């Protein structure tokens, strides 16, 4: 093997080692962040699995618990516990499957759909408030009018991209 090839192999190996070290550090940081988020969670907060089920029901429509378990890659018993918690909270309801009366179709309750719509409407309104008036001007603290926002100075962009 010539010197150039050997050097490229050494560089690739050192880059792999750096990547492995970074991945290990990232794993530790993500674990610590996850633990901290769980500690900070309130009793009424939804778990990530519950959020995932609610989003899937909203996106895909009514489905069975076993189908949810399959697409979420979990045991039906685990999905049953999630569904029971969501039903108890009034977010999900079940009805007999018209095609197979032995199964139950789960769907979001009207109350939960209304809550989603209200929350998204509030978020949209807050975003519009943050964006300011449509004429390009913005209001400052206590509603005082500020001058229209100016575009950032892009002349120094090369300093940060070179």
What is shown here, in short?
With 162 residues, this protein is mainly alpha-helical. The chain has helices spanning 3-40, 48-60, 65-71, 76-89, 110-131, 157-161; strands spanning 63-64, 92-96, 104-108, 138-139, 145-146.
What's the gyration radius in Å? 26 Å
Helix content: 55-70%
Q: Structural class, from helix and strand content? A: mainly alpha
Q: Order of SSEs, N→C?
A: HHEHHEEHEEH
What is the highest CATH level, the class of the domain at 48-111?
Mainly Alpha
What's the assembly state of these chains?
Answer: single chain
Annotated CATH architecture of the domain at 48-111: Orthogonal Bundle
What percent of residues are in strands? 5-15%
Remind me, CATH topology of the domain at 48-111? Arc Repressor Mutant, subunit A
Residue runs with pLDDT of under 50 for 5 or more positions: 133-162
Q: Choose one word for the global shape.
A: elongated
With strands numbered from the N-terminus, the spatial order across the biggest sheet is 1-3-2
Explain what you see.
- The chain is mainly α and 162 residues long.
- Among the domains are: 1-40; 48-111, Arc Repressor Mutant, subunit A (Orthogonal Bundle).
- The chain contains six helices and five strands.
- It has helices at 3-40, 48-60, 65-71, 76-89, 110-131, 157-161, and strands at 63-64, 92-96, 104-108, 138-139, 145-146.
- It has a three-stranded antiparallel sheet.
- Helix 3 (65-71) crosses helix 4 (76-89).
- The longest helix is centred in the N-terminal third of the chain and has 38 residues, at 3-40.
- The radius of gyration is 26 Å and the shape is elongated.
- It starts with a helix and ends with a helix.
- Mean pLDDT is 80; it is low at 133-162.
């Amino acid at each position: 093997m010539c010197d150039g090839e050997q050097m490229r192999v050494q560089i690739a190996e050192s880059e792999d080692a750096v990547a492995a070290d970074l991945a290990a550090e990232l794993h530790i940081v993500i674990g610590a962040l996850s633990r901290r988020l769980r500690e900070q969670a309130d009793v009424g907060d939804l778990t990530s699995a519950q959020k995932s089920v609610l989003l899937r029901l909203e996106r895909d429509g009514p489905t069975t618990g076993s189908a949810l378990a399959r697409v979420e890659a979990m045991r039906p018993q685990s999905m049953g516990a999630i569904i029971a918690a969501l039903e108890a909270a009034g977010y999900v309801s079940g009805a007999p499957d018209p095609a197979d009366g032995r199964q139950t179709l789960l769907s979001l309750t009207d109350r939960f759909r209304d809550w989603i719509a209200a929350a998204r409407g509030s978020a949209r309104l807050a975003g519009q408030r943050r964006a300011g008036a449509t004429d390009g001007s913005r209001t400052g603290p206590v509603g005082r009018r500020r001058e229209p926002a100016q575009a950032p100075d892009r002349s120094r962009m090369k300093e940060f991209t070179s």
